[in-house]
Design goal:
Layout: H1 2-28, E1 41-48, E2 55-62, E3 65-72, E4 75-83, H2 84-87, H3 102-115
Antiparallel strand pairs: 1-2, 2-3, 3-4
Length: 116
Amino acid sequence: MEEYLLVLKFIGLLLLVALLAYLVIRFGLRRLQPAAGRGYLRIIQKTALDLKGDRLLVLIQIGERVLLLGSAQGDVSVLAELSAEELSLPNENVAGPESESLFPGLLNSFRRKMKS
């Protein structure tokens, strides 16, 4: 009889630990993660310029402004500043399969702007 009570206590303790782990993962870890997609800063698209991924072009939206950033070996610089109207971006997050043609068009318009 005593062994059954010990087994029941052990199972109850395991269930309690599992419940606490679930609650911490479900509600506690959200506060530690950055607010992806919530707020004013949104990454629209990233493109690696080399195989290692050391050099990147990143298109971000901050409120109504859109910035084209260049990143190389830990150094980040603003390459161009655009408005959302210039790109005709919708208000929702456009990072996805439908945005594949957005970045090459933006890069071509940026090249034309730099030549003139």
